[in-house]
Amino acid sequence: MKIATFNVNGINGRLSVLLDWLVQAKPDVVCLQELKAPDERFPITALRAAGYGAVWHGQKSWNGVAILARGTDPIETGRGLPGDESDTHSRYIEAAVGGILIASLYAPNGNPSPGPKFDYKLKWFDRLKTHAAERLAHDIPIVLAGDYNIIPTERDVYKPERWQDDALFRPEVRLAFQELVGQGWTDAMRALHPDAQIYTFWDYLRNAWGRNAGLRLDHLLLSPAIAGQLTAAGVDREVRGWERASDHAPAWIELSI
């Protein structure tokens, strides 16, 4: 089974990129982030024509997450991250596909930091850790995939010294990510490529793509019940160079299921 995560940065504006990539990569499951579309504008007709069922949690102009499944409809098990009923951001959706519980998440950016947006990011991540621990206690196959908006280590960014005060790289968020992984999750990309230079995001500014000035922001975490079935992981980085591309490239894993 091939599972991917892809921040599309506007699903309707970049629908042709997504559809072309689906034909090329043929993932079985895709977690999408930053739909930037309300529920009624999610392009389900085009996706069904491409062979994918979907569940989605949209929001006008901002945020938005979805899960696609090839040849079937995901069975939704939750939408919205528990722990704060006042939080109306569409940043989390969860579904069962092929016996695996899969979450698509879009964590807050948090900039500028310090400030209210950074505080929200830390609180949101605390809620994610609580929810992840509860799910982990069931000892079932789980994949937490998405744009975490966190650069975990210095090897995950082209020039660490330039990002020290950024909300993506501050010590507080890196520690939060370490604490999440420390619950027992496996960072799939690093499990198979511990020392490789791997980026999933290149800014539109300052020719970041041309200079390969990238960041690793998109992660797939595996529960112990499924981590042993990981066989491959990678990034379809060439998609970032396509016309009208997102500033993210799809990251993916393959499981022996």
What does this structure look like?
- The protein has 257 residues and is of the alpha+beta class.
- It has helices at residues 15-25, 44-49, 116-136, 171-181, 188-192, 208-211, 224-227, and strands spanning 2-7, 29-33, 52-57, 65-70, 75-79, 92-97, 100-106, 142-147, 186-187, 201-202, 214-215, 218-222, 230-235, 251-255.
- The chain has one domain: Endonuclease/exonuclease/phosphatase (Deoxyribonuclease I, Chain A).
- It has 7 helices and 14 strands.
- Strand 7 (100-106), helix 3 and strand 8 form a beta-alpha-beta unit.
- Helix 3 runs parallel beside helix 4 (171-181).
- The model has no long low-confidence stretch (mean pLDDT 98).
Structural class: alpha+beta
Number of beta-strand segments:
14
Order of strands, main sheet, comes to 3-4-2-1-14-13
Residues in β-strands, percent: 25-35%
The CATH architecture category equals 4-Layer Sandwich
Q: Tell me the helix content.
A: 10-25%
Count of DSSP-assigned helices: 7
Domain count, please report it. 1
Q: How far is it from the N-terminal to the C-terminal residue, by CA?
A: 6 Å
Mean pLDDT, as a whole number? 98
Q: How does the overall form come out from the CA principal axes?
A: globular
Rg over CA atoms, rounded to whole Å, is: 17 Å
Largest sheet: 6 strands, mixed
Identify the CATH class. Answer: Alpha Beta
CATH superfamily: Endonuclease/exonuclease/phosphatase
What letter string, H or E per element, gives the SSE order? EHEHEEEEEHEHEHEHEEHEE
Output the CATH topology. Answer: Deoxyribonuclease I, Chain A
Low-pLDDT stretches are none
Keywords: Hydrolase, Magnesium, Metal-binding
Pfam families: Exo_endo_phos (PF03372)
GO molecular function, one term: double-stranded DNA 3'-5' DNA exonuclease activity
EC number: 3.1.11.2
